[in-house]
Amino acid sequence: MKMNRIKNFFSGYKKLLALGAGLSVFLFFMLVNPFSLHIKANLVLSIATLMISWWIFDALPLAAVALLPIVLFPILNISSIKDVTKSYSDSIIFLFMGGFFIGIAVEKWNLHKRIALNIIRVTGTNGNRIILGFIIATGFLSMWLSNTATTMMMFPIAASVIHVISGHRNEDGNLNNFSLVLMLSIAYASNFALGTIIGTPPNVAYVNYIAEEFNYTIGFTEWMIVFTPLTIVLLLALYFVTVKILYPNHIKHSEQGKKFIEDSLNEMGKLTTPEKRVLAVFFSVVLCWILKDLINKWQSQLVLDDTIIALAGAIVLFMIPSGRKNSINEERLLEWDDTKKMAWGILILFGGGLALAKALEEVKLMEQFGAFIASYSTNNVLLMMLIVTTISVFLSEVMSNVAQVIVMAPVITSVATALHMDPLILGIPMTLGASCASMLPMGTPPNAIVFSSGHIKMKDMVKTGFVLNLISIVLISLFCYFLQPMFIQLIK
User: Fold this and answer.
1) pTM of the model as a whole
2) What residue segments make up the domains of the chain, in order of their start?
3) Tens digit of pLDDT for each residue in 317-339?
């Protein structure tokens, strides 16, 4: 009884305790200055510990914590409010915005559902093939859209399939294993879509950082050539580990499952005019991303970059009529009311992370930390990749992967510089690892979405995620070790 009261007390005051813990750490660093840093550097470090603590303990919404630099930096005379707010309007944030707008349009006209159902129809209707179909569909969509949006798109389709299979499976089939793996596969396939720069937010964050710091232009095509194979291998590993080893379902071909998919497609009918127009814009944006470097080489009058292309595509969606008449006027493919679904908080989070990273860099904290790590490092490249990837994957379980990359990028760069390595040698594995958190619901938004389904127990997510974390660490390190030299040659 006493233990229950204690448990209820901590549960009821979780947010308050988290706020207090973060403030305590902040005051400790600010007043004690344990590392004997310069006053300004110590203030920045104190704010960094406050933000990271509140992110980890979920004391406040992530976006609310990301606003702290706008308040604290000017008050503590770290930088002016004009300088701080520049980070919140960085071009990379508008790249996200354009991608979000395109994702909203795809979802609005149910294009995602049509794509997913067609892939599942091709792969088959027995338990293993349905899961494989969802992994392929989710991984493909997530390479172009937000992993959170992709998971939310696939989630109701998966729930419907589970409902159909539950009433029409063979006696030997294990519905619990099927349901568990189907839900987990949606989240993990979204996280593992590392084959494009826009596939996950950490990729975009690091590409932007490396472009500003070293003038490296990492093109869309170069990234795809090297890291799309990594995505494919990760997705295959996800399938075999979950379906063949951890949770076999033994659900054979289901006519009812096949009928559900066919009925859904028949109900949708042929491609509608809005779907065709969204699809045309979507493919045009992707094609421009892929051919951007060639276009810029052919002529110099029209210089394209990823942000311009994404926003141009988004603006076009607001311009093109849907082809369906509403009661008042011609509806566009996107209306401003549709942006209520926009993940505005992610944009603010990104700005706060950029502001914090810039301040840490200006006071030279990351260089000092990098030199400290480098003093205990080794020149064994593969071993360093394994260490960096391991730290990145498991750190991502408890904090925002975007904020993590923004904070860690200068640190890892300093380590690589101290070891006389190209910064990309360690920076890319760190970035890829940040997207692969699989153990905890708070690791990534997709994890949290599928955990809410009720088909997943915490112990199952921790067990499955731990195995996949280890596999991700090994695969990312080996891919980067053997293929990254080619990647560096491509961008230089």
Assistant:
1) 0.69
2) 91-209+221-341
3) 999 998 876 545 678 999 999 98
